[in-house]
Amino acid sequence: MSSATALAHPNIALIKYWGNRDEALRLPVNGSLSMNLAGLETRTTVTWGQSETDRLTINGIEVQGASLKRVSDFLDLVRQMAGLQERAMVESQNNFPVGTGIASSASAFAALALAATAAAGLELEPAALSRLARRGSGSACRSVPDGFVEWLPGSGDDDSFAISIAPPEHWPLVDVIVIFSSKHKETGSTEGHRLAATSPLQAARIADAPRRLEICRRAILQRDFSAFAEVVELDSTMMHAVMMTSTPPLFYWQPATLEVLNLVRQARAQGTAACATVDAGPNVHIICEESAAKTVLQLLSGLSEIQEVRLTHVGRGARLISS
Ligand code: PMV
Description:
Blueprint: E1 2-8, E2 11-15, E3 20-22, E4 27-28, E5 32-38, E6 42-48, E7 55-58, E8 61-63, H1 66-82, E9 88-94, H2 105-119, H3 126-136, E10 148-152, E11 161-166, E12 173-180, H4 189-196, H5 202-207, H6 209-222, H7 225-244, H8 255-269, E13 274-277, E14 284-289, H9 293-300, E15 306-314, E16 319-322
Parallel strand pairs: 7-9
Antiparallel strand pairs: 1-6, 1-16, 2-5, 3-4, 5-10, 5-15, 6-9, 7-8, 10-11, 12-14, 12-15, 13-14
Helix pairs in contact: 1-2, 2-3, 6-7
């Protein structure tokens, strides 16, 4: 029996991934940029040969059905790479509450890719590890490298992986995550990616992606907050425009989402270095300079729909914590 434990953070996309050109391989229609979120983490231990079938626990509770199948399919890839027949016990712990709408699949598959390969005796190069994590969940490939990360869409499986463009300490941004109580079950991203192509706006979003990536990459490297803020908000709105105009349409925003987006825009007009972005759910990520975090928290204090606020910093990539 061999075992390894890995830790990974979720990431927030600054330039978003929405839509695959190859669903099975999770090859994206456009490149994307993100930052890892220190403070939120998934710790996963994989032990090969401990059980007769693949088994999965999340926060101590045994999970079956579609989630187990997705993990088991992923483990098949690792078995293939390592020439292994054994089944695995996967024990995963999140330090952020599941079901609050913070996407956990990125940190989950980044940690799983590293723990499963290390426990199987494989030592993958960073690019190979990122490629493998991508097969579990596209955005998971971005949780493998450190800090600010770009996913190069590539021409195929071999060259579609993520790289670090700057370490966490390059720019100490803060992500204030505003979590609303969500009353309805949302459409997950796997299904959402399928619908992206049905929107007549998707072609325009894809065609303009290299320009937004270039602006965002440069803004990060030069720590130019005002250029960063504009392109991050534009990109998020463009993705939601595609979602809202898909067939069937996906409306992730709730009234409170728009309320916070407006508050952030007004605060920025008055000199607060903050901008906002929204993933496949109603929660808002307010990304700000450290000096603006206090003002941002004050902005939120009067809003009753908020369930929780999480303050996170730019984080490192996936790493082994024992093997
Ligand atoms: O990796 P997935 O399939 O969960 O897709 C992520 C989709 C978004 O979070 C909405 C955007 C992104 O780039 O992370």
